[in-house]
Design a protein that fits this description.
The chain is of the alpha/beta class. It is 40% helix and 9% strand. A hairpin with an 8-residue loop joins β7 and β8.
Length: 370
Amino acid sequence: MLTVRTMEVRRGLNSTWSDHYNVTHSLPKVDRRSGTCSKAKNVVFLKTHKTGSDTTAQLFFRHGYLNDLSMVLPRGEWSLGWPYQLETKDYIQTNKSFNIMCLHAVYNKTKMATLMPANTKYVTILRNPWSEFKSAFNYFGWKTLVPNANTSEPLEIFLKHRNEIYEREKFGSPNLRNFMAFDLGFPPNHYNNLSEINNYVKEINDNFSLVMILEYFDESLVLLRRLLCWQLTDILYVPINISHKRILRPDYEERLYKDFSTVDYALYDHFKTKVEDQIAREPEFIEELALFKKVNSDFKLFCLNVTKNTKLTMKIGKSKWNDEYVIDGEFCRLSRIYLLDWIKIMKNKLHNIPNQNHSPNLWAVKPRLP
């Protein structure tokens, strides 16, 4: 049975906090999973678009920074060759072995295997394809592609003319359909080939140790922690780059899109079911998930308050899934840095490339999620 005792947690955002914000967890005395395995150093996080991947990549940057790990960093500003295949010219060379890759790149097993150590874990994240598409449609301004760009219903018109628009734009915007599959390296010329789609889903299943699901984000992070033998503190996060806008559309539009992006739906349906099965099978998963949700909620509240009082610290008590840990304002700051600024920070740390921006941009901490 899980019991949680918190001190000075419920007093509201304007309360006076003590020097230590204590979160103590009383749990059965059994071995922690993280104590019976070796922490994984080598990870590829294949960053997909509009799927919550910024928040996830943030964890890998923070982890790499705090543990002095080598990272695959772009020669340019943000991507590793995307939307094209990864080439040597796309990343900064180093004499050391790479430990982490977590930026946008088109998945290619052969190329990434030559770049990363043999024991590398491969992880990615998927989202409900209809939600992902609506977000991408707005973010990338795809309404300009519809026959009448001034219409009040560009999404509806796009879907009604989806095949025509795709055929016209596919060389410049091949990600208009099956965006997640495109990121994961599925060739667009096979979008309508059911046999190739099934083989591809099996290939991703075989090659990736974990495919996270945005709709099960906290659950996926617990699975990630167990896979990598991380501490619970390694997966604490502040949500970043999240739109609170809800895009409600008629059901028939989703049916049109599902017919248009069958590969994304094949991927999502398969791995959503797999994550649900993993959740059901993993021992003591519900207990760890409850603990993580509580501690991460307290962590976000702490990060909100530490912006007002930088002397605050947060003490997380020892549990089966983490050692005792004290978090300070610096840990919160590292959890809020923009990815573009993280790239600059790591270029400076790993390659002595000057970083002119000594004050990185930070994501705001929201009091609570909608």
